[in-house]
Structures are given as structure tokens and as C-alpha cells.
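Checklist before submission:
- one chain only
- standard amino acids only
- sequence pasted in full

Submission:
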Amino acid sequence: MSQEIGVILLGYGLAGKVFHGPLIEATDGLRIDAVVTNNAERIEQVRRDFPRARIFPTTDAALSEATDASLVVVANANRAHVADATKAIISGRHVVVDKPLAGSETEALFLAETSSTHGVQLHTFQNRRWDSDFLTLLSYKETGELGTLHRFESRFERLRTIPKGNWRELAAPEELGGVLLDFGAHLVDQALELLGPVASVDAYARSIRKSDGADDDMQIILTHTSGALSLLIGSQVSAFPDPRFMLLGSLGAIRVAQGDTQESLLRAGATPNSSNWGTETFTAEVTIGHSDGTLSTRELPMARGLWPNFYAAVRDSILHDLPAPVPLNDVIANLRILDAARKSARTSQRVHLDSPASHEKFAK
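Returned file contents:
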């Protein structure tokens, strides 16, 4: 590819080092020109991982001095997403923001308007649209074999008995911590992609490990306009994290017990553009009911996980005006639901949306 896009990567913690850095590096046409961090240990890590990249202590310094870079990736703490994305947009750069794009629908609309005014693109890293397990579910749904879909169960759960003490576990509202917003950003996005518009939201969110900590256990129930329900669970205090997915229909169900392994691969230092990237050794389970009252069960091979597709699509959107990997309106719809979930958790009441929250592919 003759054209290259220089990238400024903001933050080199978990998101920057494990997710964004390797995926950007593996994408033809993208190069990391600068990294923003003022942590001594992370500075040394950047020097090992990206020896040609310049390192800056602040976002302002990077935006001012890394003049060849036209894309900024915001991969720092949630509280900084809106402020740093705004600075990058005003500087005339395209922007990728790690989920959540913002802390509310209102802030997301502000960023959308600002990017439109300045004529730059704004993308959100909803990488789990390209999970092997979710792609398997989407593909199988299209067969219609399950009949009328009526319930979707989706879980991100783990047992972490001792809090790490980082910003994700702080209860202060400005930190935007807690599992409802963290796990919820993915769980809600996938539910809308799978089952379409949502009319109402019920939720709880609580802190089990520390009374003054951010929520570490949550549940969201979405009522879709089709009548189907999505049960979304996120927890740091669950020792049994499966099944990852169950999709139930009037004629049968599909169950995916294990989850996509791309995060584990990246944490282990695997290269995202390797020939076997995203392949899984486990299978899904499909059970179908028949007219004679019998049931049959079979294994379903997993689709290949495709996280590298995100940054390839960002590149092509910028260079060739192709569709964004994740429509901005989809992300705004997700935040409408998360706003409603927080209200529901706070008031212990169901929240009805004035108009259904929907992704673009379901819009009429």
C-alpha cells in the first residue's frame, strides 16, 4: 500500500499495549509515530515495542509535535476519552476511541457533532463484534433453524477476589468505572446487533467486594421490539463464567460455553496477522426439537475471530471512503441503553425508551 497513516497512541496500559498497539502494528498502511505515557515502566516498554515511535508525556505535546500523524487512538482511562478525543478532533485528526466512546449519550452526540464540524472521522473500538463466538452466533442465526428467537443470554464473568485498585474500580462518577459501563459496552452492542431495537431496560449494578467501590456485579435485561429478551450479565465475582452465549428459539437453541480467545492470544504476545489467528479448538452446541417430540444435538464449528478487521476497516474508511467498521450511530444507541441501565439500577424501575434504540442495519 503506497499510502500510510501515522498514528498517535494515547496511553500504554492494558488497552494501548495489549489491544491497540499490536493490532495497529499488524495492519498494512498504519504506523505508530508517537505514544503518550508518563509512566517510567511503560516508557521503557514502548521503547522495546516501537523503537521508532516518539514518546510524549502529554496529549497536547503529541498533537503539537507529531505533525505527520493523522490518526489519534484514545486508549487511556475512560475519564479522559471525551477530553482527549475532542482535542484530537479539533487538531484535524481522525480518531479511534476505545470503548466506551463517552460516559453518556449526550457526550457521544457532542463528539459526533464536533467530528462532523471539523470534517474528520470518529470510530469506536467495539472489537468484540469480531469475536469468534459472536460471529458464529450471527452466522447461525441467519439459517432460521431456531424458529422464533425469544431469549439471548450473554455473559462476561470472572472471579477476581481482590480488587486491583485501578481507576476501573473507583466509584467516583467521573472515573466511569465499574462493570456496567465496561462489560456493558460490549454486551449491549452485541445484543443490539443480534436481536435488533430495544424498547425498555431493567438493570441492577452493585459492589460486592468493596462497599465504596465501583459496581463489580451487574445484570441488564433488554426488551426488544420483537418481544425477545436479552439477559446480559457482567461480573468480577463469578467463579463459573460459562456459558458465554445462549440463544433460544421456539424450535431449538445454540449454546457457546467458551469465549473467544483473541484477548488471551494478545496478552501472550501472539502476532495478530499470523496464519491461524482467531481459530478456535472448541465448538458450539446446537439442539433442535422435532415434530415427533424428539431432540437432536450436534456440534457447530466456530467461525474465525477477526479482530484485525477493525483497524483494516478504519484504514480503508480514511483512505478510500469505505464504510466505518462500526457506525457512529450504533455507538450512540448503545450509550442510550447504558444511560437507561444506570437509571434503572439507581431507581429500581424499568426504563422505557421514548423511541427504540437501534443499530443502523435495523433502521427503517
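Reviewer check: The chain has two domains: 5-125, 129-305+335-362.
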